[in-house]
Specification:
By secondary structure, this protein is of the alpha+beta class. It is built from three helices and six strands; from the N terminus they run H-H-E-E-E-H-E-E-E.
């Protein structure tokens, strides 16, 4: 267990205790019943806020993309399960989301390129790299060809996506803490790719000046 995680856990316990105590004090002051539920929630909220303030727990509320598994598709509604959150303190109910698909929502399937096509792109990339004598230098990096990708996007329709597929959903608005939202783009993720070796980049040897002949 690393030091950062240990420190976060210690802070969580301390702040939770302080929040729990404050919840009981507030309940006594206002005359509200100091039951276990409201004092526990006060402690949890205080601990979560403190950890996010210190940057030890990511605040996922502002994110605009989520990845999860399709549980069901009904009409223009996609239900996601097992939605990943970078925040370990996030509401557990957010592991399930309801995604609305609008008419202008773009849906893509990530597909593997034809091996022959990918190999041609690799060879073209090698030639472009070798033809650039500044490759590997500070200025050369800006001139290098873009490495080929083993996959590409293919536009599909809503009827093509099925339960069990892993997808990434994007929105123009923050959706980190939204149970239901409208997607602007959906990408169906690709499974395991067939490994294809991309040649390592090589930097051409620096030009040298031959020594002058001895007279």
């Amino acid at each position: 267990m690393n030091k950062k995680l240990i420190a976060a856990l210690i802070i969580l316990v301390i702040v939770f205790g302080a929040g729990f105590y404050s919840g009981k004090k507030l309940a006594a002051k206002t005359g509200a019943p100091a039951n276990q539920e409201n004092t526990y929630q006060a402690g949890w909220n205080a601990a979560e806020a403190r950890l996010k303030q210190r940057g030890q727990v990511p605040d996922s509320a502002g994110i605009k993309a989520l990845t999860g598994t399709i549980d069901s598709v009904s009409g223009n509604t996609v239900t996601l399960k097992d939605v990943f959150s970078p925040d370990p303190l996030a509401d557990p109910s957010l592991a399930t989301r309801t995604v609305q698909v609008a008419q202008d929502t773009k849906i893509y399937q990530i597909v593997q390129k034809d091996p022959a096509q990918f190999q041609q792109e690799v060879e073209a990339f090698k030639k472009a790299n070798q033809a650039n004598p500044a490759a590997g230098s500070g200025t050369g990096l800006q001139q290098m060809a873009v490495p080929p990708q083993q996959s590409e996007q293919k536009e599909i329709s809503l009827s093509d996506i099925k339960a069990g597929q892993r997808i990434t959903v994007m929105s123009n608005d923050p959706i980190g803490d939204k149970k239901q939202f409208t997607a602007t783009q959906i990408s169906v993720l690709l499974g395991n790719l067939t490994p294809v070796t991309t040649p390592a980049l090589t930097t051409p040897p620096a030009a040298t000046t031959a020594p002058a002949p001895v007279k």
